[in-house]
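wait is this the right file?? whatever heres the structure
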């Protein structure tokens, strides 16, 4: 499966809070993670700015470059490895066969925050698939694909970071498609900025 099979796009929607990255192995069986009560990486006063013509295309180009790296690991390695699971396993069955609507569709949503140099600042699950192996597989794929190219300055939020909400699907026709990527430009005060003396 090629990266092009994942599709593409540059849809824009809000990004939701993020939970910490699990440390378990993506191949180890584990109970489904509970909803996280961890705080967002953004403060309540942070605001979202609309994407204009000067930012939409840089976002699209950059997301395509990031997708190319993630796809090689998530779709071509992680999803491909699920073929060896028993027939009764839900991760084995969800192959995008629309003639079998009783098969549950498995997907997870991540928030990925990048530094200007393309390294990961923070990452976590914002909507669990209900299957810890799948959630951790998505997180691990992003981590292994990093660092990414340097982020263009015009798509950085005011804290110097890039914020992306990205969905990962078991369905091979969708997988880690850029259609499911929701970028955001945020007005955020730098978290590690020194306090201003009165």
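ok assuming it is, sequence goes like this
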């Amino acid at each position: 499966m090629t990266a092009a099979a994942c599709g593409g796009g540059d849809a824009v929607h809000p990004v939701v809070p993020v939970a910490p990255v699990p440390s378990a192995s993506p191949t180890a069986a584990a109970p489904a993670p509970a909803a996280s009560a961890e705080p967002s990486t953004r403060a309540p006063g942070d605001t979202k700015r609309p994407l204009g013509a000067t930012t939409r295309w840089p976002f699209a180009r950059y997301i395509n470059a990031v997708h190319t790296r993630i796809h090689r690991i998530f779709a071509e390695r992680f999803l491909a490895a699920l073929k060896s699971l028993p027939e009764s396993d839900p991760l084995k069955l969800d192959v995008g066969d629309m003639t079998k609507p009783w098969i549950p569709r498995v997907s997870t949503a991540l928030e990925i925050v990048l530094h200007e140099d393309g390294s990961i600042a923070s990452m976590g699950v914002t909507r669990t698939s209900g299957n810890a192996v799948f959630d951790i597989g998505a997180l691990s794929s992003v981590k292994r694909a990093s660092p990414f190219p340097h982020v263009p300055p015009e798509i950085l939020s005011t804290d110097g970071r890039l914020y992306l909400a990205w969905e990962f699907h078991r369905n091979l026709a969708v997988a880690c498609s850029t259609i499911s990527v929701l970028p955001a430009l945020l007005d955020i005060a730098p978290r590690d900025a020194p306090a201003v003396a009165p």
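Helices lie at 53-81, 90-93, 132-145. so i think its the right one actually
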